[in-house]
Amino acid sequence: MGREGTWVDQPTDEPVNVARWKADEEFGVYPEGARDKSLLISPEPKPHLFLIPSHRYLFKKSFERYPEQFWAEIIAYRVGCLIKAPVPPAFVGWDSDNGVCGALVEWFLEYPGDPAERYVPGGDIMTDMIKGFDRRRGRQHNFVSIERYSTVSRRSGKLDGDWLLWWCDTLLLDALVGNTDRHQDNWGLLWRDSERARMAPAFDNGTSLGHELVNRKLAGFADPDRMARYIERGTHHMRWRLGDESQAQHSQLVVQLCERHPTLRERAKMRLKQFNMDTMRSIITGMTAFDVPTPLSEERAEFVSNLTETRYRKLLEALCG
User: What is the pTM assigned to this prediction?
Assistant: First the structure.
């Protein structure tokens, strides 16, 4: 059922040039989200071994003021693989016609041989559950309401798999990369028919990893106190429960989940123990070798590595005491 959470290697000498890829007939210019993106069809025969021929890929560009932002999406995929989180593959892409770079994210629907599925965003669920839900701002977006819906759906036999394990792994990923954009439309269900559904992959992970910090500010984060303050100020999009005044801090949200469901604590700790820091640093540093118009600078690679390690240690301390 897709390749989410599976390590798919992209050699550094094989950035994907999408200049001649065909646009999807219905969503060539993809309408969802704040950043410019295009839904494209990979060629057949495939130009790279790691791609699926005739499959959809979302080419996600950076905000103009944050040209290196697309790297966050790609790095987050690799971080997700290290903790076995259900993240769709994301590759380094660029368009030789205009020099624009972006993350090439594998579409999680209509894999070859898979049954047809229909995606329903979490915002539809929140709107049905919470009277007057503000779909634009999502201020009532909260985990306890999601839990209530998912528990009922699971007991009725409509929700396959273990949705709670999905949220444990996804919130761990969000905490590690500092994802501030897991809003109500950045998670959802895949319905096989009107009776059975499963959790969709944890997509849209690019609003993370300090993407909004321009290069001239990165050196200042060598100060551990400044790094700690930066992490502490960041929050998840989600509140813990309806009526909470503020959004939850990333590690706090994971701890609250484990306190509510104690069996998840060992799972979370095991996932973190699988997260090897040396491997992570090697992966991120290796990505500076991609020869594209907007490369990952060594300075940013070092910053992202240090930021992720600091988040990792904070999260491990919060879970282990």
Answer: 0.95
